[in-house]
Write a structure and sequence with these properties.
Elements (H helix, E strand, L loop, with lengths): L17 H12 L10 H14 L24 H11 L15 H4 L2 H4 L2
């Protein structure tokens, strides 16, 4: 589902929009965890889907292991992402144009999509 809501990484981003500021801030927080293995534009889509549809992404089991082979537990951000969605969903912060095409399904590595 996140792939369907994906905004192309080559898109034009409104860097002054508070939602983008929060999404980028969350990417920085997630830098040391397995979410960092997901392309940034797809990860931002996952955050938005998690907030609007309350669907938490499933990550590939291999990236959920630490160096010792033990499972990593990620923090639950559903409520935070849902608050963001409640604030900005009605204004539809993502604008679309036929000029920029979304070819995401053609360039993702299967491990990015999980099991």
């Amino acid at each position: 589902i996140s792939l369907l809501h994906h905004t192309n990484g080559n898109a034009i981003y409104n860097t002054s929009h508070p939602l983008l500021e929060r999404l980028v801030g969350q990417l920085e927080v997630e830098a040391p965890c397995p979410y960092n293995s997901i392309p940034y534009d797809y990860r931002m889509s996952q955050m938005w889907v998690e907030g609007t549809l309350r669907i938490v992404p499933e990550l590939a089991p291999k990236i959920m292991l630490n160096e010792e082979g033990e499972n990593i537990t990620l923090s639950n951000n559903l409520e935070m992402f849902n608050k963001w969605a409640e604030i900005w969903e009605k204004e539809d912060p993502f604008k679309y144009t036929p000029v920029i095409h979304n070819y995401a399904a053609t360039n993702l590595i299967p491990r990015h999509l999980g099991p």
